[in-house]
Design brief:
homodimer; alpha/beta; 60s Ribosomal Protein L30, Chain: A; Alpha/beta knot; 6-stranded parallel sheet; 4-stranded mixed sheet; 33% helix
């Protein structure tokens, strides 16, 4: 049975303030736990229903992760999902430093004020699929360890490096690598031959690339619509899917 | 003021059963109304706040659309949005017939049991962006006029033809056009030169392409992940974004 204190500790991690202070975050569900096991993220504690524990005893033992059985009703109390799924874990946050060592041969993503948790998670998932090893977030992006972000990465959060930085801190006159930005007056991405390494900036859902980052863009690109009179834009996650697909195509 | 009867009529369209019977559906918000005005969809009636009506009087007059002022509180009662936005309209559904006249020079989408309204709407929006003129839905797709589908098309529902059909009814031994399907053992899409016309089948979110449609696939394709040991798949909408981008790239 969950003690009052445990209940309090777990639910305190539902808020950003406490996640920041404790440097911890929550992971939920069977699928996410498989990905967590595969990763080298530090797992503090697992709360799970008996049948899940039975199936995963060997894994828990091997990794020496403390585990406490909970009932379905208890899981409901600590879960943030509308349909809790067997298991919830507390894991340690990671604060990676930006590493631009491979910026001459790889593409990195820079997220400029992405605010929607679902978009953020989806973009991290796309980055993982298309072989982007590092995603850099502006300080005003939605929190990486927001439970909705974590869940919508579908586990990719454990596989790629995500860090925070101000874009201008990464770029000096001497850096010399391209900084791509999606802009309406940009060049057609399908014909952009140097789109093989550098940094791709993905703008905010409503406002696009921020004023302060616009002067840092060296290569303006766009995904051309089929018809020129097209009123709409693609959303941030869909545009990322297309850009990263173009990046991978050049490598394959 | 809204009469009891009006309130009842509008909210009855919150359910599929009544939408089907009346062949009507709901549209909400300023942005969607602009798109509706641009289209030739029949608009039965508009319910809007005074300030919206003032701005749009000319449009309403030109199109002879009856309009009734409502208060913010009344709009809340008839709206399905968590944050109602000025206006709600009732419009007439359309049941287009599949037209394969251009299947030799264009790509059509076939949605095989897409169940999530957000995915369905996003896919219709992507089809519009990338110049797909026709989307064909299997009979077990989520209802096209589900308000969540309608809203997440961002207006593209008014611009492209969406119809319903059983895939095997569209294909005979003599048709001769390729039917593409995303399958794990498929050919790399980036090198698939004939991906310029035919039908692309998008499978269900959990189960992929259905058993009955698998034998109809003539060209198995896949989006290769960056790393071969990749456990995850792309979701239906993201995969559609990548496939349609590849299609457009060949045209540009």
């Amino acid at each position: 049975m969950l003690s009052k204190n445990q209940l309090k500790n777990i639910t305190s991690l539902h808020t950003k303030k406490n996640r920041d202070e404790e440097q911890l975050f929550l992971i939920e569900g069977e699928k996410m736990m498989e990905e967590l096991f595969r990763s080298d993220f530090r797992t503090e504690m697992v709360f799970a229903q008996e049948d899940w524990i039975e199936k995963n005893e060997a894994q828990l033992g091997r990794k020496k992760i403390p585990c406490q059985p909970v009932t379905e009703a208890e899981l409901k109390k600590i879960s943030l999902l509308s349909a809790p799924n067997k298991v919830l874990a507390i894991a340690g946050q990671r604060r990676g430093e930006v590493d631009l060592a491979k910026v001459g041969s790889e593409l990195y993503l820079y997220l400029d004020a992405i605010r929607d948790p679902g978009n953020m998670g989806t973009i991290i998932r796309l980055a993982h699929w298309f072989g982007v090893s590092q995603v850099i977030c502006s300080p005003d992006c939605v929190e990486l360890y927001n439970p909705k972000v974590v869940q919508s990465t579908m586990g990719s959060i454990f596989s790629i490096r995500v860090c925070e930085a101000v874009l201008s801190d990464l770029i000096s006159d001497k850096t010399g690598f391209p900084v791509f930005g999606a802009l309406l007056d940009g060049e057609n991405i399908y014909g952009k031959d140097n789109f093989t390494s550098g940094i791709l900036v993905i703008g905010n859902e409503s406002n696009g690339i921020s004023e302060k980052n616009l002067p840092l863009i060296s290569d303006r690109v766009k995904i051309p619509p089929a018809a020129e009179n097209h009123a709409e834009s693609l959303n941030a996650a869909m545009a990322t899917a297309v850009f990263l697909s173009e990046y991978l195509r050049r490598k394959k």
